[in-house]
Amino acid sequence: MSQSIVLPKFLEVGEGAINRVGDIAIQLGCKRVMIVSDRVMESLGQVDHIREIISQAGVEVDVFTDTMPEPTETSVLPAVTQAIAGHYDGIVALGGGSVIDSAKAIALLAQYRGRIRDYSVPNIVTSPIMPLIAVPTTAGTGSEVTRMTIITDESNDEKLLCMGPGLIPSAAIIDFALTMTAPTRITADTGIDALTHAIEAYVSGKSGLFTDQQALLAMKLIAPNLREAVNNPQNKQAKEQMMLGATLAGVAFSNASVALVHGMSRPIGAHFHVPHGMSNAMLLPTVTEYSIPAAKEKYADCARAMGIADASMSDDGAVALLLDELKQINKDLSVPSMSEFGIDKQAFWSSLEIMSEQALASGSPNNNPRIPDKESIIELYKVAW
Ligand SMILES: [Fe+2]
Fold first, then answer.
1. How does pLDDT run across 240-260, given as a tens digit for each residue?
2. CA dist 42 → 45, 95, 323 (Å)
3. Predicted structure pTM score
4. Distance from the CA of 143 to the center of ligand 1, in angstroms?
């Protein structure tokens, strides 16, 4: 079976790539763009910096910095109103995955109107959104190269997944220098998210030779650099490899899908406000252990790509090392357990029913090598707790 690959038109990769953002806006035919960012980027002076680069290229530019982490529909609506009123012909998203996800939703609703739920799965966004230049400031979500966005519906705390080729950014600026000032916790959480993308894309039922190569290379770049990027944030080489690894993992999962970890992780994030990468980390060892019997060779490949098992080792030996490593990463990066994070056990237990329904509704569990039913997902939540 063939794989349909969707990629941005332009990728600008390497230190100083941000200086090309104005030229790329012009190449995309933009005359008037809106920067979508957040207050942190604004306070760091990054919004002014990118605004200056865009202005100098001769493109008109306005700014919206009121995006929220783990964006909700309500949080993006003011920007949608601004985008419609301002007649912008492009959006530049500067920030982490939440900013880029917000920008995709803003571009979508400004252009086609309606509500987020009108576009969420099982619907597919096929019509292209207005040109979006994604400038990630974290090495993690891969949102700069993915055809999806996740926006929470506050009415029932459901993370709505919108996907389709129409949501792919037109350009991605992959400049690791922008990640040098990221806080430690964010570097850790987004880094584990990227590793999860690579592993899930590789074991996904929708994987293929093209995405397998991106995923394996992403694991090779991320695994040996993850702890170093967190513990020694001035290490440029570690940051550069993490950044590229995260983008390649994004290419892999955007085209091969994620699987059960992400399916179960989104409801934890929506109900208990756990950052996305952290809720993945809380689940990754448990879900990997559950899934290994259905795809032992592939998980063994992951261990080898991550550099924790060598080619001569048996698959059984390699997957055992993989499980140890995933647990050790969580310890080394101080990933809290769900109770340490402050989730109330009773509240968690009483949400198991709805969370497993929402996990299944996202479709991601169906891509898992071992496909669970609702009861199995509830069991896995309990084990991960
Ligand atoms: Fe993710």
1. 999 999 999 999 999 999 999
2. 5, 10, 40
3. 0.94
4. 9
